[in-house]
Amino acid sequence: MFDVYLRSGRLAVHYAVAAGSCVAAGQVAAQSIAPGAQLRWRWRLDQSLVNADLRQKRGDDSPLKVCLLFGVPLAELSFIDRSMLSFARSVSDEKLPSATLCYVWDHTLPTGTLLSNAYTSRVRMLVLGSGDKNLGQWVMHQRDVAADFELAFGGDKGGEKGNNGLPLLDAVLVGADSDNAGGQSLGYVGDVTLGP
User: Fold this and answer.
1) Number of Cβ within a 10 Å radius of residue 58
2) What CATH number does the domain containing 168 carry?
């Protein structure tokens, strides 16, 4: 579940994730990312997911995540990625993105780890919070969207592009999940902005 709370004198989205659940909030209209755009937010984790392991399907969970969903056209993807995404879209009620970059908090992986999602290479995760360090503390982040997209997806910039050559941004989501490893977590995300 998620709610908006006043925490440390500022509004924040409160995530309480029970075993076997997933929550996410946020959406924007498709937009071009301006050159030099920075994604900023703060997060606070009070209870981690000790059983999570982003490297495996059975542990593919995170107690906090901030994700950028990009619209790379299917024609620009490999045959395998295009086929898998087409199938997934055909059985889902959601408009699944073709490229997603998630900033995550993980219990075991070191900060700076970049990896593909255990289910699809179209989701890449960059670990920005690790272990129990900073539990109960607000941590500020500022990320260069173009640089991180390049780091995560390399030359994969097909289709309609904005001013800096990135695909259009379809959404910014914040969330948490424990639908694979189980367990419970408690965290907050606030002050999410995208701008110069």
Assistant:
1) 12
2) 2.60.120
CA 150 to chain centre: 16
pLDDT, tens digit only, all 196 positions of the chain: 444 544 555 555 655 544 444 445 555 566 788 888 999 999 999 988 888 888 888 888 888 999 999 988 778 888 888 888 878 878 887 777 779 999 999 989 999 999 999 888 889 999 999 988 899 999 999 999 999 999 998 855 444 444 456 888 888 888 887 777 778 888 888 888 888 8
Q: Give the range of the structural domain holding residue 167, as residue numbers without chain letter.
A: 2-195
One DSSP character per residue, the chain reads -EEEEEETTEEEEEEEE-TT-EEEE-----BPPPTT-EEEEEEEEEE--TT--TTSGGG--EEEEEEEEE---GGGS-HHHHHHHHHHHHH-SS---SEEEEEEEESSSPTT-EEE-SS-TTEEEEEEEETTTTTTS-EEEEEEHHHHHHHHHTT---SSB-TTSPBPEEEEEEEEE-TTT---EEEEEEEEEEE-
> What is the number of domains present in the chain?
1
